[in-house]
Amino acid sequence: MGSILEPLYWVVSGVMVFIHRLVSPIFGETSGVTWTLSIVALVILIRILLIPLFVKQIKSQRALTALSPEMKKIQQKYKDDRQKQSEELMKLYKEHKTNPLASCFPILAQAPIFFALFTVLNGLQGVTPKARGALTPELAAQAAQAEFFGARISQTFLGSTDLTVKLVTVALIILMSATTFTTQRQLMVKGMPKLDTSNNMMLQQQKVLLYLFPIIFAVTGVNFPVGVLIYWSTTNFWTWGQQYYVIKRNPAPGSPAWEELQRKKAAKNPEPEGNGPVALEEPEKPKGQRPQPKKKKKRNK
What is the pLDDT of residues 190-238, one digit of tens each? Predict the structure, then answer.
């Protein structure tokens, strides 16, 4: 595993060292701010590189929404034959060039970076910090001493008896789990079209993601170094902001955000009145004249 991730150790540590050199004249070489900014910059760089995957994720989700009626028909038709149902659904996805797992692509793409950062920061623990990738022994020693609100960025909840470390890690674990939950809920409440909840595979998948990922992060977070918790909380904030922008500016048709955008557009550009039948106006009566009584016709005797 180490040899497979070795190039990523260099990428992760290389970005951190580069940012460290840029900001260390301002905050100091061993400052926690310096190394925290290095981790945040790593997140920003990775998320910029992952924008194409994010776009693909959005397109796939919208394609699945459009296919929802067809998916439901297949599920009802082959409800007693799960294998045939799966085959027909896969055929439908292939025909329309979409993937139901596309919503997981950004997370899966970040997983190797996540493990590489975990290994680099985890190696800083102990009496002799382990230099890995672009981290020289001197830089590794500096990073090992860097603190975030009094907790070293290399320390974990389970690996330390320091109360400050435990409080900081618990706060970051809560923040990481909460931002994961709110980001997924934002997508479900605002960004997804109103779908039939009965036997809807896409909606069920989103509900699983809504509750599963926060629980996974909450349970496994006690093993993560403070720096990794900073990394994942930062990437959650980025995801939330990026998703908020897309939902607000380019919402999926039929979603609550789309309906809200249509109402705002209608309020800004109201339709001109008078589209109904036009009533004919009566001609004006000449002013200053009294109406003349009609003369009765004489009957011939």
Answer: 877 765 555 455 566 667 777 787 888 888 899 999 999 999 999 999 9
Nearest Cα to 75, choosing from 60, 89, 94? 89
Cα-Cα-Cα-Cα dihedral sign, residues 247, 250, 254, 257: positive
Q: What is the C-alpha to C-alpha distance for residues 242 and 46, in angstroms, rounded to an integer? A: 14
What pLDDT sits at residue 200? 55
- Helix H or strand E segment including 151: strand 151-152
Structure tokens at 159: 């690996």
Domain map (residue ranges) of the chain: 2-259
For 191, the token pair is 């960004």
The whole model's pTM is what?
0.76
Hey, is 198 helix, strand or coil?
Answer: coil
Q: Which amino acid is at 214?
A: P
